[in-house]
Each structure stands twice: as C-alpha cells, then as structure tokens.
Amino acid sequence: MKKVYFIRHGESEGNAGPIRQGRSSSLTQKGLEQSEIIAERCEKLSIDSIISSTMKRAVETAKIILARLKKPVEYSDLFAERRRPKEQIGVLKSDRTALDAEKTIRENFTVSGFRFSDEENFDDLKTRAGQVLRYLQKKPEKNILVVTHGFF
What we know:
Distance between the termini: 24 Å
CATH architecture: 3-Layer(aba) Sandwich
Helix content: 40-55%
CATH class: Alpha Beta
Largest sheet: 4 strands, parallel
Number of domains: 1
CATH topology: Rossmann fold
Radius of gyration: 17 Å
C-alpha cells in the first residue's frame, strides 16, 4: 500500500507579518527551526521520494528535509497553495478591500462556477485535486513525502 505524508511548510514571513503573502515569501527563523524539527522526525519514516510545491517557503522547507533524508526531490505546481485573487496579494491583512474579497469568496466558495476575480475557485481546486491523485497513483514509490501548504 502506498503512503503519502503531507507536510506543511514552516512559518513564513507572510504568515508572521502584516502583509498577505504571494509565491515568494521566505521562511522566518522560526520556520527554519520548525523545518529542522520536522526533518528530524521524517528520518524515522521510510521515505522513498520527496515532492514539493514550487513556492519559495515550501522549497526552503523541502531543502532542509532533503539535507537529512538524502532522497530525490521533485518540484510540482500541483502542490502549490491555492491561488488567491490579486486583491489579496501584497496588501495589509487588515486592508478593507482584501477582507471584503475574502468574505465574499468564503460565502460563495462551494457555489459551482463562482469566481471573485482571478483566484483559483472551488471548481479549479477539485480539478487539481483529481490531477494530484492521478499523479500520486502513477508514482512507483511506496512512501512519498509531500511538502505543501495549509490550504491546498
């Protein structure tokens, strides 16, 4: 039986700071330390390969894990964090426009076909989830570690 271990990246500047993060947010010192802890724990698993999101915070986490496990790492956009609308990227978390967008999206998230602006909507996520499942099923490795995000 195949086992897939999903790991969320360590704390990022975007998680800790006042600005909503995009793709290029780095790990904080705390995030680096968290990644070291999870890498140490992963040494107890029989991991055959590592797959990581292409977003900087996940790549940084994966490199820390790779240094301990010495396994091949593959990078894939399939495991990136959900794309948020442009109204929410690079602005203060308290920005009224961003908060209004978040509220509208949350209230309509499962409404088929709903799209606020340029974000990845529920239909997009379902499609990508299907692609992820097919991708993982085709992998020959039995124990796969995936470095990804809190909200797929």
